[in-house]
Amino acid sequence: MNAVNKTLYIPLFGKAEVSRKGIIIKDPKAEEIWKQEGFALHGKAKSRWLAYYMAMRARVFDEWTKNQLQKYPEAIILHIGCGMDSRVERINAFERIWYDIDYPSVIQERMQYFTESDNYRMLSADASDIKWINGLEKGKEAIVIMEGISMYLTNEELGSLFLALQSQFANVLLLMDSYTVFGAKASRFKNPVNDVGAKIVSGIDYPEVLEQNERIHFAGELDMTPSGLVDELSAFEQIFFRLMFAGKAAKRIYRLYEYKIIK
């Protein structure tokens, strides 16, 4: 795997560690994979605080996805940059048309732990090369999950991806996390992804920058660290976590954006 692909082990460790503790997120598949893979993380990449943060982020994405599935029962799901995530299992969505999408080396590794079916498929693709979208069924509604991937794409690549999704699907509901420009610059000096070799990331200060036409809408910002999830930590951990990861300082670095792309 290249350096960007190796970043998948950071959220995998976080979800496995928190699931093992019985808080925030239940993810036995992450526990299984982490125990089997045992990739050596170092420094900040293996901190308990980052583990809590990764688990909370995953839980927010899970809840958002479940809500969209209830609203749009005929939509297909595209999980772009899926890594080794088991969201399809966590929210029990195997009856839906679901694509987990990532680089060929990642999908090859996923094949050891996940089994394709008529509804669940794993697709080898580079998110920056939009030709893969043309191979999907045209005209349906799509729910698009982009967790931990936008920072590895330039704004131009994100814009091209949004336009390709608009052309292929009737309507698109999309959720993605993003660095701010300041966060991206700061990450070059102090970022857990550096511990697995990833150095170059991008950021967005104004989510409206991706509204390239009247059909692409920034729909709002979600809270990455809801109070109810922070409350599951110990009393001391809650104080420290809110100070370091859930306040205004954290939002200067990292945000969670929802978009709607309509015909």
TrEMBL record:
It holds the Pfam family LCM. The keyword Methyltransferase applies. Keywords: Methyltransferase, Transferase. One of its GO terms (molecular function) is methyltransferase activity. GO terms for biological process: methylation. PANTHER family: S-ADENOSYL-L-METHIONINE-DEPENDENT METHYLTRANSFERASE YKTD-RELATED (PTHR43619), S-ADENOSYL-L-METHIONINE-DEPENDENT METHYLTRANSFERASES SUPERFAMILY PROTEIN (PTHR43619:SF2). This is O-methyltransferase involved in polyketide biosynthesis. It comes from Kineothrix alysoides.
